Amino acid sequence: MRNSISPDLQKFIDKFEPSKYKLIEKGLEIRGVRDMHRNLTQAKELIARLELNLTVFHDAEMLSYGGFEVLPRSR
Q1: Nearest CA to 58 among 30, 22, 35, 19?
Q2: Which of 75, 68, 73 is nearest to 8 (CA)?
Q3: SS3 state of residue 30
Q4: Is residue 71 exposed (0-12), middle (13-18) or buried (19+ Cβ within 10 Å)?
Q5: pLDDT digits (tens, 9 = 90+) for 2-21
Q6: Rounded distance, CA 44 to CA 47, Å?
Q7: Which residues contact 24 (CB under 8 A, 6 or more apart)?
Q8: What are the pLDDT digits (tens) for 26-75?
């Protein structure tokens, strides 16, 4: 795992204020989301508004524990 968090991920955490998150090797995993659709939409809108070099990733397995990931976008 990286020792430091990217400035874009830190901005996202500060503005999105997730109640439960975990730093992962690739980025950030947000857990315990109750309204998945609303939170995914808010995360994507925040990334676009702040012009962060991040993307949101979500799959069916993550739905089982109410999670999604925020990862640095590949250049």
Answers
A1: 30
A2: 73
A3: strand
A4: middle
A5: 457 899 999 999 999 888 89
A6: 5
A7: 1, 69
A8: 899 999 888 999 999 999 999 999 999 999 999 999 988 899 999 998 75
Q: For 1-75, where are the alpha helices, taking DSSP H only?
A: 7-16, 36-50, 60-63
Angle of helix 36-50 versus helix 7-16 axis, rounded to 10: 130
- Its pTM stands at 0.86
Query: Residue 51 region, left (φ>0) first, then alpha (ψ -120 to 50), else beta?
Result: left
**DSSP 8-state secondary structure symbol assigned to residue 73:** P
How far is it, in rounded angstroms, from Cα 16 to Cα 70? 11
